[in-house]
Amino acid sequence: MLQKRILVIDDEKNLCTVIKACLENIGRWQVLVAQSGTEGLAVAKSEHPDAILLDVMMPDIDGMSLFHSLQDNLTTNGIPVILLTAKVQTVDLNEFSQLAIAGVISKPFDPLRLSELVANTLGWKF
Fold it and tell me: Residue 82 CB: number of other CB atoms within 10 A?
């Protein structure tokens, strides 16, 4: 079976390092990292990952705008997206529930459980 590939799009370099280490070492997945929305869209188009972990709040292109760009693109619209966000108030969750997202993982999260959360959200074996 081919190894799953996950694209992490988040502008926080240290958080990307932690997420990458956790998903590679615990989940045994290949992890691609993009530290801006612009870079993330380009990587998603060229690499066709199996899933995307997308930060909602980024400086260049916010996560919601990037999500819509991914959905509007024929190359990327089938890729499941999990939102990574500190915005977990009811109004935000209601907004997210209206989107075709795979799920939401709130920040901060337990790094040792991240692979399990991703696998459960996507229906992958872990």
Answer: 20
**Across residues 99-122, what is the average pLDDT?**
91
The radius of gyration of the chain from alpha carbons, rounded to an integer in Å, stands at: 13
What whole-number distance in Å separates Cα of residue 41 and Cα of residue 109?
A: 24
Q: Which residue has the tokens 């988040």?
A: 10
Distance CA 79, CA 53 (A): 10
**Residue 20 · residue 47 · CB < 8 Å:** no
Mapped onto helix, strand or coil, the DSSP state of residue 87 is coil
- Does position 123 have pLDDT exceeding 60, yes or no? yes
> What does DSSP assign to residue 8?
E
The span from the CA of 27 to the CA of 40, in Å, is 21
